[in-house]
Amino acid sequence: MILVWLAIAPVSMMMPRYFKGYWDNPIAGNAAYQAWFVIHVALMLLGVVLSTLGGALVVTEAGADPFSKDLTANPHPVFGLVTMILMYIQVLLVMPWIFGRRR
């Protein structure tokens, strides 16, 4: 999860910000899928998959035990769960624009 949140997600977020005007060559002859966009989507989906796998590893190792402890001393499980839920909501909200003609 450290690799995802400190490397893959920031690099993916830099693609539209810094490379949108430079990497505009189309992929596979389709002008809607430019190089920066394809790399951005691929890295974001890789981040979602790796975060899900990391969350699954945490749950299998610790179970629901982190939520039974005092969360005021260590709120990391709550922040992690909220972040994962927001990540999935973001993926669901962006799907029509990735595959639609409005892009």
Topology (elements, then pairings):
Blueprint: H1 2-19, E1 26-27, E2 30-34, H2 35-62, H3 65-68, H4 76-99
Helix pairs in contact: 1-2, 2-4
Summarize the structure.
The chain is mainly α and 103 residues long. Helix content is 72%, strand content 7%. It contains 4 helices and 2 strands; from the N terminus they run αββααα.
Provide structural commentary:
By secondary structure, the protein is mainly alpha-helical. The protein has a domain at 32-98. The chain contains four helices and two strands, in the order αββααα. The protein has helices spanning 2-19, 35-62, 65-68, 76-99; strands at residues 26-27, 30-34. It has a two-stranded antiparallel ribbon. Strand 1 (26-27) and strand 2 form a beta hairpin. Helix 1 (2-19) runs antiparallel to helix 2 (35-62) and helix 2 (35-62) runs antiparallel to helix 4. The longest helix has 28 residues, at 35-62. The chain is elongated and about 55 Å long. The model has no long low-confidence stretch (mean pLDDT 83).
